[in-house]
Amino acid sequence: MTERTPLAPPPRKDPTAVTRLAHRPPGMPSRAGLCFAAHAARGTFALQECTECAARLWPPRDACPHCLSADIPFTPAPVGGEVIAQTTVRVTHELFYRDRGPWRVGTVKLDCGPVVTANLHRDVATGARVRMIARLDLAGTPLMMALPEQETPLMDEDPALRTLTAHPRHRRVLVTDGRSALGQELARALLKAGAAKVFLGVAEGWKPLPGRDRLEAEAGIDIVPLDLTDTRSVVDLAGAIGGKTDIVVNTADHVRPGSVMGQSVALAQEAFETNVFGLQRLAQVFGPALLGRANDGLNNAVALMDVTPVQALSNWNVYGMHSASAAARLSVLQGLRAEMREGGIRVMSVFAGPMDDDWHQAVPPPKLAPRAVAAAVVAALCEGIEESFVGDVAQDVFARFRADPKVLERELQR
Length: 414
Hints:
Elements: H1 31-41, E1 46-49, E2 56-57, E3 74-76, E4 80-89, H2 95-98, E5 103-110, E6 115-120, E7 129-136, E8 142-148, H3 159-162, E9 172-175, H4 181-192, E10 197-202, H5 212-217, E11 221-225, H6 231-241, E12 247-250, H7 265-275, H8 277-292, E13 303-309, H9 320-341, E14 346-352, H10 370-383, E15 387-390, H11 391-403, H12 405-411
Parallel strand pairs: 6-8, 9-10, 9-12, 10-11, 12-13, 13-14, 14-15
Antiparallel strand pairs: 1-2, 1-3, 4-5, 4-7, 5-6, 7-8
Helix pairs in contact: 4-10, 6-8, 7-9, 8-9, 11-12
Protein name: SDR family NAD(P)-dependent oxidoreductase
InterPro entries: ChsH2_C, ChsH2_Znr, NA-bd_OB-fold, NAD(P)-bd_dom_sf, SDR_fam, Thioester_dehydratase-like
Domain ChsH2 rubredoxin-like zinc ribbon: 39-71
């Protein structure tokens, strides 16, 4: 196997060089293809499986070609396979992909039956056993990639694989809430994952910041003023660092217990000001800067990530208005995802259950440690997973939501 050298930090950008345009992505697949995309967005390798004859199907279709059954749901599939042919694509008629090639593709015979076309990792050769993954590319289009069956040196630095992720290595990251334990843990986790620098936003700088001395002593962390409820604060920070920020991670969350009738309107407004309008300010101000650098080479701007409360999926009336703000927050992210996809920027969410903090004291276990959420955020960035669920509560809520949202609504009522 070819000896690999670690990915080098990017050179300083030539300010006189013309920035490459991020062309509009190609059209979306069929509805069956979108089902495959939904699984890929959550990092699941899933194929259609006929409930009548048990055949695994590819490409996505509306009926089984073997028995004509229309009951062919997507289910997790075995990931093993063997490469039977390969080639290199150097020219494409799609403008969106012209500046992103060349890339290796091949045909893979899956252990579960179908022969598929997939991107090939640089350490994969014809005849090799491979492990398949499904991910979304920069255009939001689902694709398969064949990885080596066993880990190889510097495996995640393959350029083709890196374009399917938002890996923080050598990238500069803004974390919006440095006052929270989550924000501080995340800053350290990002540096450990190879981030070149972490800008850690802190609102109300006149207030004491627990752990400030330790943060300032850590190389790679810059504490910056940022208040998501203040448009001027967001604009000023974007003017200072917007052009050199590659990933934005929003960890701000205004949490207060209280039902819809029990919580004051003023307190609910504070929640929406941070959780919804704060996210909108962040997107409106930093979004254009991210889009402007989305086609900027190997260490381009790649993602806006949000740590989203899982009660965005269904209202938990003990935290009724916070749940309402979380639902609005999720809707903002969905709309933003459609806008940012046009330029090749990922909009990602890590859904989290209640954290072990002051505002969830009355909530019984299991609760999440901030370090666990930070690790999940870094993992989602490194693996390119658009939506992930961290912790037992979030995973259980999501499973129940997929089964029947109306039943979940009743289950969360107390």
